[in-house]
């Protein structure tokens, strides 16, 4: 079979581009480590309810106007189911899941991340306006997904 000179050039360019892509993918996956693209810490998903501080989820005061919120997302709810913080509080959310992938979103804020089993996902937000903030699961997690919510009350 005879190939035209331009066909040969395009075949070489296409194969070269594909080889470069596979090489970069291998370097990224193996040489740089196969890890989530963040500073997530790991936890055994089978032992979430036994591992401190997730064995007693809730708010912990860590400084003046600063709190750590340790939460678990499970089918089909969050623990704790309600939290209260003072106005102007900076809250560091640390969330994990023992079962499936969940979402964690506070509408009207920039807090929005996925909660993966075995990973502790984190985000920080300062509550400058009083009110009741809803926390939703925005990742479909099963038949009861639509009832999965909790609130933060800012006073």
From TrEMBL:
Write down the SUPFAM superfamilies for this protein, in alphabetical order: Cupredoxins
According to its UniProt record, which reaction does this protein catalyse?
4 Fe(II)-[cytochrome c] + O2 + 8 H(+)(in) = 4 Fe(III)-[cytochrome c] + 2 H2O + 4 H(+)(out)
Q: In this protein, which residues make up the domain named Cytochrome oxidase subunit II copper A binding?
A: 54-155
GO annotation, cellular component aspect: cell envelope; membrane
* Presence of keyword Metal-binding: yes
Main function = Subunits I and II form the functional core of the enzyme complex. Electrons originating in cytochrome c are transferred via heme a and Cu(A) to the binuclear center formed by heme a3 and Cu(B).
* Entries under PANTHER family matching the protein: CYTOCHROME C OXIDASE SUBUNIT II (PTHR42838), NITROUS-OXIDE REDUCTASE (PTHR42838:SF2)
Name of the protein: Cytochrome aa3 subunit 2
- The organism named in the record is Brevibacillus panacihumi W25
């Amino acid at each position: 079979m005879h190939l035209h000179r331009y066909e040969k050039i395009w075949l070489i360019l296409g194969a070269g581009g594909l080889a470069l892509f596979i090489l970069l993918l291998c370097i990224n996956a193996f040489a740089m480590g196969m890890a989530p693209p963040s500073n997530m810490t790991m936890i055994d998903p089978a032992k979430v309810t036994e591992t401190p501080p997730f064995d007693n989820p809730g708010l912990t005061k860590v400084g003046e106007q600063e709190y750590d919120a340790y939460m678990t997302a499970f089918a089909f709810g969050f623990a704790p189911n309600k939290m209260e913080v003072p106005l102007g509080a900076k809250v560091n959310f640390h969330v994990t899941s023992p079962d499936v992938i969940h979402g964690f979103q506070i509408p009207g804020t920039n807090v929005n991340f996925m909660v993966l089993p075995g990973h502790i996902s984190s985000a920080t937000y300062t509550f400058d306006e009083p009110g009741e903030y809803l926390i939703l699961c925005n990742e479909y997690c099963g038949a009861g997904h639509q009832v999965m919510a909790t609130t933060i009350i800012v006073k």
